[in-house]
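To: structure subgroup
Subject: Chain for Friday's discussion

All,

I'm putting the inputs and outputs inline so they're searchable in the archive.
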Amino acid sequence: MAYQLIPLSVQATDNIQCPYCQQDVINWAEEQYVQPCEHTLFIAMDIGFEYMTDEFEQSMPRSVDDLHAHDDQVNMFAEITQSTYPNYLILKSDLGIQGYSRYVGFTA
């Protein structure tokens, strides 16, 4: 397994920080709340992707465009964890919709 999953005990409206540089990569005080730092590989939800580096996308079996085209049939977490990217960290938080989560990936 190339990734480590860390469930966060935060509310859906809480900011999420990079564990390395402490930048808020989800920052609800900003109009554009997605604020990736240099360590961020992706920001995803069970319903799609909000951000992804080209490098991480190339390590996945399917492209983001293909996943979004079939998002009603895709398990985004399963897709993320099939990446061949070496050693990454996934922070998992509640999305605010019952049964849905947000996943933020960082280089390890």
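Points worth raising on Friday:
The chain has one domain: 3-107.
The CA atoms of residues 48 and 68 lie 6 Å apart.

D.
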